[in-house]
Write a structure and sequence with these properties.
The protein is of the alpha/beta class. Among the domains are: about 1-80 and about 305-335, no CATH class; about 85-300, von Willebrand factor, type A domain (Rossmann fold), CATH 3.40.50. Helix content is about 60%, strand content about 10%. The chain has helices spanning about 15-35, 40-45, 50-75, 110-125, 150-160, 170-180, 205-215, 255-265, 275-285, 305-320, 335-365, 370-385, 390-400, 405-415, 420, 425-445, 450-460, 465-525, 535-565; strands spanning about 5, 75, 80-90, 90-95, 130-135, 140-145, 190-195, 220-225, 230, 235, 240, 250, 270, 290-300. The strands form 5 sheets. It has a 6-stranded mixed sheet with strand order 6-5-4-7-8-13, sandwiched between helices. A two-stranded antiparallel sheet has the order 1-2. It has a two-stranded antiparallel ribbon with strand order 3-14. α3 (about 50-75) packs antiparallel against α10 (about 305-320) and α7 (about 205-215) runs parallel beside α8 (about 255-265). The longest helix has about 60 residues, at about 465-525.
Length: about 575
């Protein structure tokens, strides 16, 4: 796509016919002047250094230079830049249950993976809507703030697992309340909450939270995951999760509770199975909502590209200045026109090939044909490996395909030319987006420290980007959780070591006590050799020994149970 920023300057092209007419007039005038002195053919033999071809070459070079200068000041634009547009859509907050009970396999492959697949396909059907994601178990956390960046949404979705929330349970009410706080303030569009859960061990006032959401005009829709008859929870190695009593846990879909929450939230309830019934029902419910204007940032097909034409015009003016009207005796046999034409045509051909491939890639990219766009961009980069625009567009195409390591490499090449990109506003916005996407890639790989630095660099360039600011806060929270989890693991390991040491010391003390008792009994026997031990005395000694051994075993078992209780919460599924 191509346009001029200042098309009014194109009216200057009307001076070109007058310039050509003036040149023709001057040539005719010169010929008439020569005829006054005699036959032009005879006079040409007397002026061997005069070259009409050189004069014609100088004119056409000057003519081309003026034409290019006019196009330069008209401001040619193509490529891409970030701009804010308004689209009609709705806001959707998805609350996904990530408790251990969601690992049950009564829905293939399991409840959690089925929910992620359904959300991924649901996201593919969005075009102008905004989407946010909350994960919850015993607590609720924002995984993705409300956004129209569906690529980031699917990327965050793929990394969800039960380990993200350390406190187990099913705090549905907390998830609904957090979703209500996550919608865009003062936005008039319709809003809805999609709650995906098995309803296992409902812990808080979810019905009250759903009613509060309804009073604010937000519908709460429920997707029930699992089967009412229940299923065990796999823990690996062919084993299943057990409760404190050692009984295998059977987790069931609490369908009645889900229906009550949906009724209180003025929404619909649907049970997910191995078909697409739940997905179609949710898509139909979203289509019924009233869509209003939503602001979001997208890329348009316009970017300043006058630099190439300006350099070509300058080069032609230099050639025109160095070209003499008369023939040079030394270089008389050199075809200057041929050399200039060959040089300029080579440069122009390379630039034309690069622009052609990038424009073709832009068309494919806008049509969401990212694989074909990648091929076109790579052709452009092969022509000019130092092209910042080519590297940037190629990085975006790879990012859209989920090829994050390759996209990060291209973004790094683009960021290497940051000084040049910072000279224009479009370049600054493009560079900020490079760091934003790089931060998303690092976050997907759980490299939270690197993602935080990338988001900070993006905000230094574009401090008004709310999406980057939200992602930065999320990355900082995830990094803090990661560090706390590592510290907790270290503390648990230290406690285990201390407990083992205490158990070993207790065993040693018990063994020493037994040995002392045996020695004491033996001494008493030696002191009374002539006294015959009665059967009752022998039985008493044996009972005392067995009681000591039993007390020792009970102490060891009690210490082990206390250690397990410290690690175990009230509910682990």
């Amino acid at each position: 796509m191509f346009r001029f920023a200042n098309p009014d300057f194109l009216y200057l092209l009307f001076i070109l016919p007058f310039l050509f007419g003036f040149y023709v007039y001057s040539v005719v005038s010169k010929k008439k002047a020569i005829k006054k002195y005699g036959n032009p053919r005879l006079l040409s033999e007397l002026m061997p250094e005069v070259s009409s071809k050189r004069q014609l070459l100088k004119f056409w070079i000057l003519f081309a230079s003026i034409t290019l200068v006019i196009f330069v000041i008209a401001g040619p634009q193509f490529g891409s830049k970030l701009e804010t547009v308004k689209r009609e859509g709705v806001e959707i907050m998805v609350c996904l249950d990530v408790s251990n009970s969601m690992l049950a396999e009564d829905v293939a492959p399991n409840r959690l993976e089925k929910a992620k697949q359904m959300l991924s396909r649901l996201t593919d059907g969005f075009s102008n809507d905004k989407l946010g994601l909350i994960v919850f178990a015993g607590d609720a956390f924002t995984q993705l703030p409300i956004t129209s960046d569906y690529i980031s949404a699917k990327m965050f979705l793929s990394s969800i697992n039960p380990a993200m929330v350390s406190t187990q349970g099913t705090a549905i009410g907390a998830a609904i309340n957090l979703a209500m706080r996550s919608f865009t303030p003062n936005e008039a569009s319709d809003k809805t909450i999609i709650l995906i859960t098995d309803g296992e061990n409902h812990e808080d006032d979810a019905i009250g939270a759903a009613k509060a959401a309804t009073e604010k005009g937000v519908h709460v829709n429920i997707v029930g995951m699992g089967q009412p008859q229940g299923s065990p929870i796999p823990v690996g190695g062919g084993n299943f999760m057990k409760d404190k009593a050692g009984t295998v846990v059977i987790t069931s879909l609490n369908e009645q509770m889900c229906q009550e929450i949906a009724a209180a939230g003025n929404g619909m309830y649907v049970r997910a199975d191995n078909t697409n019934t739940a997905l179609k029902a949710m898509q139909s419910e979203i289509d019924k909502m009233n869509k209003t204007e939503l602001e979001s940032k997208v890329y348009s097909e316009f970017d300043e590209q006058f630099h190439v034409l300006a350099w070509i015009a300058l080069f032609l003016l230099i050639i025109e200045y160095l070209t003499m009207d008369r023939k040079n005796r030394i270089f008389r046999k050199v075809k200057l026109f041929s050399c200039v034409l060959l040089l300029t045509s080579g440069v122009a051909f390379a630039q034309k090939a690069e622009r052609k491939n990038i424009r073709e890639g832009n068309k494919l990219y806008s049509s969401e044909k990212y694989t074909e766009a990648e091929i076109a961009y790579r052709k452009g980069v092969d022509v000019n490996p130092r092209s910042a625009e080519g590297a940037y567009n190629l990085g975006n195409a790879l990012y859209k395909q989920g090829k994050f390591p390759e996209a990060a490499e291209q973004y790094q090449l683009t960021a290497g030319q940051s000084r040049k990109m910072m000279e224009t506003r479009e370049g600054q916005e493009r560079l900020a987006e490079v760091f934003h996407n790089t931060g998303n890639i690092f976050m997907a790989g759980k490299e939270y420290a690197k993602s935080i630095e990338a988001y900070k660099q993006s905000l230094r360039i574009n401090p008004k980007d709310d999406e980057t600011r939200y992602n930065l806060a999320l990355a900082q929270k995830l990094l803090e959780d990661q560090q706390n989890e590592e510290q907790q693991q270290d503390q648990e390991e230290k406690q285990d070591e201390q407990q083992q040491d205490q158990e070993q010391n207790q065993d040693q003390q018990d063994q020493q006590q037994n040995q002392d008792d045996q020695k004491e009994n033996k001494t008493q026997e030696e002191e009374q050799p002539n006294e015959q031990m009665s059967q009752d005395n022998a039985q008493q000694i044996l009972d005392a020994f067995l009681q000591d051994e039993k007390d020792t075993q009970e102490k060891v078992k009690k210490a082990q149970m206390e250690q397990q209780e410290r690690r175990r919460t009230e509910k682990e599924w």
